[in-house]
Every structure is written in structure tokens, then in C-alpha cells.
Design brief:
Length: 124
Amino acid sequence: MEHHSHITGIIVDEAFQLHTDLGPGLLESVYVKLFALRLAHRGLRVERERRVSFTYEGVTFDDGLRIDLLVNECVVVEVKSVEELAPVHFKQVLTYLKLMDMRVGLLINFGAPLLKQGVKRIVN
């Protein structure tokens, strides 16, 4: 878990810096692109719009879900740009973690007035 903590620490630091620089109000796609670039500059491996397939009751869904960012193949990052996070956003990240058999995810809302209100760590 220490490895996850180090990576999530870098992710949160970069999110705070990006939010400080740009503030809330931009499209989610802008934050995702710039956030991925910042994380890559910090030496992290970042995949954007990662498609994940899964099978349920014998039916395979090749494009059943798409996560915003997968960092170092161990942290799911879901980016939002909304006034307020809804309960479904938390459930979305938890579902991603379960389907990918992963432990840690971050839900980051760049639309929050203060980013500390918009960063949530979710553990499977």
C-alpha cells in the first residue's frame, strides 16, 4: 500500500497545482489532457481513456467502460468538472476498481471551488 500512497500523493499534488493554475470551470477533457501531461512529466506512466473489457454471465463487453486515467497500472483516476460530486460518481470509481480487480482509485473534481473538497480516495 505504500507504493500506492506515493503514487496517489504525486497525483494529488499535481491536481492541486493544476487547479491552482487554471481554477474551476473548464471542460473535463481539458483537465484530463493537461493532468495526464503533468503526471507524465513527473515520471508516471499514464494511459488516457483506457478501455476495459469485462465479462458478465458469459457476455463480454469490449467497450463496457472507459476510465479517464490509469496511472502506473495501479491507480484509477476519474476526473470530473462539476459543481458538486454526486453519490453515483463514487460508485462509478468503485465499480471500475472491482471490474479491474484493482485496489485504489481517486475521484478528482476540478469543478470544486477548493480542490481539497473535490479529491476523494476510494479503496476496493
